[in-house]
Amino acid sequence: MHATHAAAGLPDDGAPEPWEESSSSTSAQRRIARKIDPRYAEGEPVKAIGARNQTEAEFIQNLLLEEGIPSMQRRARGFDVPDFLAAGPREVLVPESGLAAAREVLLQSELLDPNSAARSARPPSWKLLAWLLGALLLLALIFELALQ
User: Residue 140 in contact with residue 132, Cβ under 8 Å?
Assistant: First the structure.
């Protein structure tokens, strides 16, 4: 009998107290931790793929976990509203060291388009062009100030 039940004069129902960690959740966490390959667990979380909803994101996470790649999910920007519950797009994040392996798994599973994987590995060309133009303008401004 739990001490709180005895103090309140209630019968013991055999259920664990809410603050007590159940052994089934602990064993599930240990089972997941044993599957993680330490080589893929280093670095900051980066986006590996987007999912249409929570169910798809969990499927992708389990697929990655089977290959030893840890992951987590978050709601996509603009959809971070609790009222959406399991609906709305999600982003699946993996540690930086596991990104290449995650992309390979997703390519093999045909969840990731090979063309999009190649494009996302390098910055978009318009961003590169914007940075180059910004640097050129800054350089021109410095020369203009130096000549005055």
Answer: no
Which residue is it, tokens 């994101």?
57
- Record the pTM: 0.59
**Tens digit of pLDDT for each residue in 14-28?**
555 555 555 666 787
Q: How far is residue 133's CA from residue 124's CA, in Å, rounded to a whole number? A: 15
Rounded to an integer, what distance in angstroms lies between the CA atom of residue 131 and that of residue 49? 26
Contact in structure between 89 and 56 (CB atoms under 8 Å): no
Indicate the residue type of 47.
Answer: K
Helix (H) or strand (E) holding 49: strand 45-51
Q: Which ranges in the chain belong to alpha helices (H)? A: 3-8, 23-35, 54-66, 99-108, 114-120, 125-147
DSSP 80: -
Please write the tens of the pLDDT for every residue from 65-75. 999 999 999 98
| Number of neighbouring beta carbons within 10 Å of residue 33 | 9
User: Phi and psi dihedrals of 18, rounded to 5?
Assistant: -60, -30
Token pair listed for 137? 């303008």
